[in-house]
Amino acid sequence: MRRPLARALTGALGLIAAAAPPLAAAAPAAADSVVVGGQPARITDAPWVVALSSRDRFGGTRAGQFCGGVVVAPTKVLTAAHCLGREALGGEPWQLPDFKVIAGRSSLRGQGGQEIRVAGTWVNPDYDSRTNSGDFGVLTLEEALPASYVIAVAAPGDPALDPGTAADVYGWGDTTGSGTYAMSLRSARVQVLPDAACERAYPGGTGVAYRGDTMLCAGDPEGGRDACQGDSGGPLVARGRLIGLVSWGSGCGQAENPGVYTRVSAVPPQRF
Ligand code: 4AZ
Question: Can you list the domains of the chain with their CATH numbers?
Fold first, then answer.
């Protein structure tokens, strides 16, 4: 599919989707069974990964998880704007009676870590759901997380952004491309790809166009390892720095259709 769904990452991560119905245009990743390659991840090794949760809207089976997020300051979580939109939430974020961030917990069936209420949401006013450009927003937490949970955000020119750099994407999203959501945190090793790889895959025309100024291209050149639905909003990390947020792509894990991430080095740091 050519548009983002508010879902989580999965495991091949097939990472992605939570809230929105599958898009008609999206080639089901399951069709070629390529969403593989993820592995269990320990939250203690990646304390900056959080789950966005509303049991009221998404049900309690998976603790209400519907997207990922990243701790960028003790009370600030960066996530995808499309996770906070009406399509995902059925209304405005502040209308959710129980919007929380779950930190320090790997298993959505578990009790560890903390659940913290979201006190405020800010959605990038330049986010455009037709172009997927500027897909980020910031949550303000009611209580502070430990400073040790915070990850540094890559600045423009950081070598972590160079094509060929190994990167890890994290989430609780779809591990198969067919709606098999993870119960425990997973990660998948991908690499930063040249903008040209995503410009080729997503030239625009009938679908959404890739834009290298606000988006980052990453994937597995051989296919198989990728984010998927439910992983949206979660982190892509290279050299210990946050370089991207899971945003969109066509299917999951297809070599010819890399994952598209929000380029966080283009987010003004004063936003968080
Ligand atoms: C989604 O639907 C989604 N393979 C997220 C990431 C990717 C595809 C779809 C990238 O949220």
Answer: 39-271 (2.40.10.10)
- Rounded CA-CA distance 262/135 in Å is 6
260-269 pLDDT tens trace:
999 999 998 8
What does the chain come to in residues?
A: 272
Give the distance (Å) from ligand 1 centre to CA of residue 249: 5
- Report the separation in Å between the CA atom of 6 and the middle of ligand 1, taken as the mean of its atom positions: 8
Based on the residue annotation, tell me whether 187 is a catalytic residue of this protein. no
Integer Cα distance of 133 and 214 in angstroms: 6
Q: Is 271 helix (H, G, I), strand (E, B) or coil?
A: helix
Nearest CA among 157, 161, 177 for reference residue 15: 177
Mean pLDDT of the chain: 88
- Please give the structure tokens belonging to residue 171: 């989430």
Active-site residue flag, 213: no
136 contacts: CB under 8 Å, gap ≥ 6: 78, 79, 80, 81, 124, 127, 245, 262, 264, 267, 271
Task: State which ligand 1 atom lies nearest to the alpha carbon of 7.
Answer: 11
Per the CB < 8 A criterion, the answer to whether 193 and 216 are in contact is: no
Express each pLDDT in 21-70 by its tens digit.
333 334 433 333 334 569 999 999 999 999 999 999 999 999 999 999 99
How far apart CA 34 and CA 32 sit, in angstroms, is 5
Helices assigned H by DSSP within the chain? 55-58, 86-89, 195-201
